[in-house]
C-alpha cells in the first residue's frame, strides 16, 4: 500500500512540474512570426531558425561564432574591457546592478565580442552583438571595442564584419553612449579611406542608434530573413504620422525591396556568403 501511495505522490509531483510555466518554457518555444509552438531542441538543432516559417530567432554570441567562423580560428580581443557608471545612473535599479545581472546571465563582459578569425579561409575582424546583454545596447565599451577592432583591421589590411542585434544606444550612459555613434562612424570612415571592405549583417532586431550608425554604413549590407530593422519602432512612427504603415514595414524583405539592404541571407548560408564576399573584396595585400 505504501508503494502505491509513493507512486501516486511521484505522479502528482511530475504533473505539477509539467504544469509549471517555467518548465513549459524550458521545453517549448513560441515563434514570433507564425505563432507555432515548437520543441526547443528542434529550434536549437536548426541554428535557432523556425522550421515552420523560417523565422530567425536570436542566437547567443558563442553559438554564432561556432556556426560562422572556421574551427579554432577565432581570437578574441579586448576581453577585459568592462563598463563603468560615470553618471551613477539609477532607474528602477542601479546601472551597476543591471551590468552585473547581464554579465551573470550571458557570461559576457558587455554587449559585443570582437576578434579576428577566418571564414572559409578568408581572414577578417569580426564583431558580434549579444542581444541578451541589456538588449545589445551601444555603450562606451561597445564603441571602444568596435573602434579598436577597426584600427586593427586597417593595420592588418583585412575586412571587417559586424553582426548587429541591438535596441540602440544605452540610456544609462547618456551622452557618452550617443557619442559612440560618431566614434564608430568616424572609425568606419577611416576604414573606407584605406579601401578595406566592411560588411554589415543586420539581425532581428537592429534598431535605434546602431541602425543609425554602424548598421547602415556597410559597403555591403546583409539582413537575416524577417529581421526587424529601423530607427524608431513602428508604433511610435504610426502615432507620429497618424497613418497606417505598409504591410511588412521595417522587415528585411521590405528594406530589400526599397534598396536599403543588399542581400537577405539565411543563417545556414551566411558563412559561405561572407567567405565569398571577403574573397571578392579582399585588398591587394591579401590576394594570392
- Identify the CATH homologous superfamily: 2-enoyl-CoA Hydratase, Chain A, domain 1
* Helix-strand pattern: HHEEHHEHEEHEHEHEHHEH
Give the neighbour order of strands across the main sheet: 3-4-5-6-7-8-9
Figure out the total of helices: 11
Percentage of residues assigned to helices: 40-55%
Average pLDDT number: 90
- For the secondary structure, the number of strands is 9
**Into how many domains do the coordinates divide?**
1
Q: Kindly identify the CATH topology.
A: 2-enoyl-CoA Hydratase, Chain A, domain 1
What would CATH call the architecture?
Alpha-Beta Complex
Question: Cα-atom Rg, whole angstroms?
Answer: 21 Å
Structural class: alpha/beta
Shape: globular
CATH class call: Alpha Beta
Notes on the protein architecture:
With 288 residues, this protein is an alpha/beta fold. It is built from 11 helices and 9 strands. The chain has one domain: 2-enoyl-CoA Hydratase, Chain A, domain 1 (Alpha-Beta Complex), CATH 3.90.226.10. The strands form 2 sheets. A 7-stranded mixed sheet has the order 3-4-5-6-7-8-9, with helices on both faces. The radius of gyration is 21 Å and the shape is globular. The chain starts with a helix and ends in a 7-residue tail after the last helix. The model has no long low-confidence stretch (mean pLDDT 90).
